[in-house]
Amino acid sequence: MRRVSIHQPNYIPWLGYFYKIAQSDVFVFLDDVQFSNEGMHNWHYIKTTQGSLRLKIPVQQSLGDLINEVRTKDELNWKAKHLKAIEANYFNTKFFDTIYPFLSELLLRDYPNIAVLNSSIIVSICKSLRINTEFVFSSNLVITSKREKKVLDIVEALKGDVYYSGTGAKAYQLEENFTQRGIELRYSTFTPFEYTQQYGNFQPNISIIDFLMNCGFDWNQVFKQQNR
Description:
The chain is an alpha/beta fold. It is built from 8 helices and 9 strands. It has one domain.
């Protein structure tokens, strides 16, 4: 069985994104689809004493640009601003001394576009969590189909027989289209769980930065919670 999942490369995403990766043998960064300001390609939330704070990357893009064509405006010093916000809100956490230098080193590298930036951070976090999934960029597969057909063509090109989809795709995906190609359609379900967290009531679905700062690279904790 070869399990494939696909997702746009998002900015330091939430725990559920990484759980989807961990369920897969191959994870595809969908970098050759249109960049969306409404998507989470260039932003995510961290937790602060005042509630959620959105960390947003300023980008240079035109309507219709693909994710791998969008440049981050590093000249606006956004990396230092994001790191300052992370430091200010997490300096008291148990694993700050490990996670902050790790994130800082990743962020301060030079990247040609936002797809490479996001995917590089995601892959590095996965390695530290000991998630041994294979990573592929959809742009390297040179598949020109769109929407569901693109998904089917990618899974087929990678010789996958199981496709792990996000639950949001239930609205438009037809299981029979996968079955006809010999692909089993499964939905990756992640149940947010409470872990040690700062600042009052537990807040789910924020960037994995929060989990890492409070729990370190303890993927076993996530795995146990999802398999109770």
